[in-house]
Specification:
- The protein is α/β, with parallel strands linked by helices.
- The protein has 13 helices and eleven strands.
- Helices cover about 40% and strands about 15% of the residues.
- The termini are far apart.
Length: about 325
């Protein structure tokens, strides 16, 4: 696919065939893979409800926001759907360094025929808007107010975008799609867990057609994902270890929900713990370095108790003993 601007989907495929979800929905797919299409992760596990919400965005041009705690795979979920549709995808993290000029564009000095001239360079939004691209705004609730009002212009389904400096109106490509991910739903940092998140304009939140919530996977599914990520643990002894590790993670999540802990273990942290077990050959040492040292000092005895419950031994004893991990 060389001419991305003029590309369009050329085939309808069944959701049942592509994702194994019991639905009669058919989705448009591209026959060729462009440079911006994400790579397929065969180990990724799809949440059926969230997948259908994202597919509604691709199929019916709905604006879809995926909300959930850290480490649930929100952005990856959208990317992996796009990968299976061969849909070009652009992911932008709305950290504090992304400015209005980054999104809209700015004048820049370039060399033409040996002369320096001033030329307008399109930003992320006008570039994406003119192409069949799935634009993902990651960490949406961390965006600066001036940046968010730029985005608000394109939240309408057929919303055009005016480049004031160019006296030009850009109409969206028929297959331009817009997604976002967020830890909160625009209500700010209520529990102290996500510093830097903003209270978002409710008029803007109201423009998102679909808001899907992505939670952590069931226990057995999470174990399978970690084994796929750390294949060195895919043995009988290794599977028992990973099962205990996920049990610890489950307890931290319940402790966080009950207000006993101010942090929790995401699947990303459990994968890191498993990878560190390969390095240090000691689950307790890897646990300290991967998670325990990140916890509030006053809460560490609670976390150590979770470890003792799942592993059947005190964390300090296990840490001091030289123990070969499976």
């Amino acid at each position: 696919m060389t001419d991305l601007m003029n590309a369009k989907p050329d085939k309808m495929q069944s959701v049942r065939t592509l994702f194994g979800i019991d639905s009669d929905l058919e989705v448009p797919t591209f026959g060729e893979r462009a440079d911006h299409v994400p790579e397929i992760d065969t180990a990724y596990r799809f949440n059926p409800d969230v997948t259908l919400a994202i597919l509604a965005g691709f199929t019916r041009n709905r604006r879809v926001m995926v909300q959930g705690l850290h480490g649930t795979g929100k952005s990856t979920h959208i990317e992996q759907v796009a990968a299976r549709l061969n849909w070009p995808c652009l992911r932008v993290n709305l950290d504090g360094h992304v400015s209005r000029l980054d999104l809209v564009g700015k004048d820049a000095i370039v060399v033409r025929d040996g002369l320096q001239v001033t030329e307008f360079q399109e930003g992320i939004v006008p570039w994406s808007l003119q192409r069949p691209v799935a634009l993902i705004f990651d960490e949406y609730d961390a965006g600066r107010p001036d940046v968010m009002f730029v985005i608000q212009r394109i939240l309408e389904r057929e919303g055009s975008f005016t480049l004031l400096d160019q006296n030009r109106v850009i109409h969206p490509h028929p297959y331009f799609r817009l997604f976002a991910t967020a830890n909160t739903v625009g209500l700010g940092n209520l529990d102290g867990m996500y510093h830097g998140t903003q209270v978002l304009n409710h008029a803007q939140i109201d423009r998102w057609n679909i808001v899907a919530k992505l939670d952590y996977l069931p226990h057995d599914e999470e174990v399978r994902i970690i084994l796929a990520r750390v294949p060195g643990k895919d043995s009988e002894k290794g599977r028992k270890l990973i099962d205990a590790m996920v049990e610890v993670a489950d307890l931290t999540r319940k402790g966080f929900a009950a207000g006993d802990l101010s942090t929790l273990m995401s699947p990303r942290t459990v994968i890191t713990w498993a990878e560190n077990c390969e390095i240090f050959r000691n689950p307790a040492r890897a646990f300290r370095l991967s998670f325990l040292n990140k916890c509030d000092e006053a809460e560490r005895p609670i976390v150590a108790e979770y470890y003792q419950r799942c592993f059947g031994e005190e964390l300090d004893e296990s840490y001091q003993r030289t123990q070969e991990a499976p």
